[in-house]
Write a structure and sequence with these properties.
Elements: H1 6-17, H2 28-41, H3 46-60, H4 73-88, H5 96-104, H6 120-123, H7 126-130
Helix pairs in contact: 1-2, 2-4, 2-5, 3-4
């Protein structure tokens, strides 16, 4: 079961975009859920726009974007690609709350998910934070299986 209702998911994405989401609410689940909502509602240009969205949010809540903190290009683009692939498998009419529950039940729900594709050294390098770095453990293609069925 998702920790969010449809209305809360819409609000989460809106508050990310307008920088009113409190920093302590910007959890891994919130990252994935907001990205899911953005993919479902403003799909075009997210690969280009997501860096600015996250960077400006980080600064607005008192964070920094440097070589060791804040925005991480490789992680962001990997999750964005995987969430796009996930969304493509959803049955028509799936609500945001059901989609989020299914997404969070996949391997992506674990913050360590990228480490199945990148070594820790490569993923947390300055190069990977600043730009896209290809995985060194296994290809990212098709990283997520079909949506997990959740009990009604």
């Amino acid at each position: 079961m998702t920790p969010y209702t449809d209305a809360e998911i819409a609000d989460l994405a809106r508050r990310l975009l307008d920088h009113s989401l409190p920093k302590d609410q910007w959890t891994h689940a919130a990252h994935l859920t907001a990205t899911l909502r953005l993919v479902r509602t403003r799909n075009d240009g997210l690969e280009r726009d997501m860096p600015r969205i996250i960077q400006t949010y980080n600064v607005a809540v008192g964070g920094v974007n440097d070589d060791h903190n804040g925005y991480h290009e490789t992680i962001t683009q990997a999750y964005l690609a995987a969430i796009r692939a996930f969304v493509a498998t959803l049955p028509a009419g799936t609500s945001d709350s059901e989609a989020a529950a299914r997404l969070l039940a996949t391997p992506m729900g674990d913050k360590a998910w990228p480490l199945g594709f990148w070594s820790r050294e490569r993923l947390f390098s300055v190069a990977a934070r600043r730009g896209w770095v290809e995985p060194d453990l296994r290809p990212l293609e098709a990283p997520v299986g079909p949506p997990v069925e959740t009990p009604a």
